[in-house]
Specification:
Radius of gyration: 31 Å
Number of strands: 0
Length: 98
């Protein structure tokens, strides 16, 4: 019995040889960097955008520092509480590390 369906070989990207994922990624990355450069160095608004970006980055840094300080303080308080519950010496008590 003869099949009437058209039998074509399955083509993949590599079979065609015209698509390179690395090249496509490089192209997209280049386009993104070009657009970002145009956005930040626009003659009319680029300066204000850069200043705003700098301010936002500084605020983010301050927030991260405060969060880290708060976490450090919390961990110190938890360690002191654990030491007090289990009658362990704390760094403030004489005899520790001496």
């Amino acid at each position: 019995m003869h099949d009437t369906m058209d039998h074509r070989p399955d083509l993949t990207i590599s079979d065609r040889g015209d698509a390179n994922p690395g090249a496509l990624f490089g192209l997209l990355l280049g386009m993104l960097l070009g657009a970002l450069t145009m956005f930040l160095f626009d003659p009319r608004l680029g300066r204000s955008r850069r200043i705003r970006l700098e301010q936002q980055a500084a605020a983010l840094g301050r927030d991260a520092r405060r969060a880290a300080e708060g976490t450090g303080e919390d961990m110190a308080n938890r360690a002191s509480g654990f030491a007090a519950e289990h009658d362990l010496p704390t760094p403030d008590e004489p005899g520790l590390g001496q």
